[in-house]
Give the backbone structure.
Amino acid sequence: MAGGERVAHLMRQLASAACRCPAHSQAYSHSYQRVSAGEAHSCQQKTDYAFEMACSNIRFGAGVTREIGMDLQNMGARNVCLMTDRNLLQLPPVAAVLDSLTKQGVKYKIYQDVRVEPTDKSFQAAIDFAKKGHFDVYVAVGGGSVIDTCKAANLYASHPEAEFLDFVNAPIGKGKPITSLLKPLIAVPTTAGTGSETTGVAIFDFEDMKAKTGIANRALKPTLGMVDPLHTLHMPSRVAANSGFDVLCHALESFTALPYNQRSPCPSNPLNRPAYQGSNPISDVWARHALQIVAKYLKRAAHDSGDVEARSSMHLASVFAGIGFGNAGVHLCHGMSYPIAGNVKTHRAKGYDVDHPIVPHGLSVVLTSPAVFAFTGNMCPERHLEAAQILGADVRNVKKADAGRVLADILRSLLYDLEVEDGLSAIGYTKEDIPSLVKGTIPQERVTKLSPRAHTEEDLTDLFAASMKLY
């Protein structure tokens, strides 16, 4: 058949298989059916009609770090910035990178002052280092904090005249598009959670607002994510669990996010299409597979640091979920997590060698997950039930009206088995803190607007209240 007819035929097939729940009904055919190619091109409609997939190149394999020196030589690197944190500087992952660089005669300088859970001030310190160094390639060895810091340093060193808020997500920052080329960046993740090696997102605490925000643009994504599962064997048990919770919520939130063709506004220029676009057929594939791996391996990875199969599988799940949410986005769990982490008082998480109070990102995200998915369940019951089934729930006789509750229950059971703190009250929050937590969530519209269910400040208040205790 002719090309146009073939496309139409494929779209009709896709429509017939689409989820029929309220938030995703005709999710991948609605705009196609109503809008002609000419109308879509000029984007006269209010919602988007297309999605775009972007991902770093990924190399996976035990011991693959030994190749990084050759990669840098192949790039013609003459002056490399290697970013890490002080704890990792003493551990085998950094040693493996430095050994490879030395063997290949690569010139480099180390920045070791990355802050775990970075702030605008720690970002700025790394940016100042990068600007002075005039580097032609960047290497980040660490978890999401290190990789995100390196992304920001690369961005602002490549835009020396830019003010810090120029690229920070609106409404906190100006959210300007990135138009200049960044230097190559190789990310070597040492945790299995953030997926930052795949995405164009960099997250930090904006201290004046006591809330997390970030920079989101495809231009930030690393040139290469070098995923070496041997590096995850050095994670303490609690770090492995909290990292895994981030994978879990990345997958769940991207899978249940508002469909891409219900997201507004429709960009007048493809340059303005956001990195977080809403759920789509491709991101769904990655989210489902990540959930399957989490269901099988998260408990094993958390309980036994020597379980190479489990730790390796979770490292790969982090990549899968990263590709999914890096294009679809996340919603309420992440949006609500930012003030939870940003308003931390005295809580010091187990397994983290830091000199400041900290609620690890994965923990701040997962503590609201039972309440969030109970809330969103009625907008997309089929997807909530499918996710619950993957995670081990028996959904054979469950009514659609109970989908959110069933997913919330299986999440609560998983958190209990992994000895997670009993809600926000266990990490230092009280009901008196809820207004400030709601206030910190409101500016996170970049992610919260992707919730499949619309919400008010009163809804957010109820969700935080429901998350004070889990068990």
